[in-house]
Amino acid sequence: MSFHEISIAVRAENRASYAFRSIVHDVLHLGTAFGLFDSQVGRSVSAVMSAVHLFASLRAALGTTAVTQKIYAAATWFATAAQNALNVSFSTFLALTGVGIAVIVAAAVAMWYFASQTNAAAASVKEYNEAVSEMPAYGRGVRRAGEEEYYRRGVEY
Description:
Helix content is 88%, strand content 0%. It has four helices and no strands.
């Protein structure tokens, strides 16, 4: 039942209550007028009708309460499911964001490392070229004693 249907049921119960009291009053009045009831029987009939009305009202109230409890339980389940889905999406977003940031940082560190190694190698080649250019031409052809012997045998030293 929706809230609108529950409010309609409560209004109908209120109107029925007034109509029920009116009917009981009319029955008692007619019974007394025709001599079917004396005052003691009229009070007993009134008490019985009041008890019947009370139990009918309680049954209706408990029925709407049970429906309200079911609606509340369903709404709570839906809210819990929505909150869990939201928590999962947030945690997934944070995990993927963290992994993405870690990948970017790792790539930056690798690029820095490779760049520093390239710079070190380029500096070493530059220093070698400078040293070779300062060496006299006749010094470049100097060989150690016995190297020719190895070259003849095909063994490089």
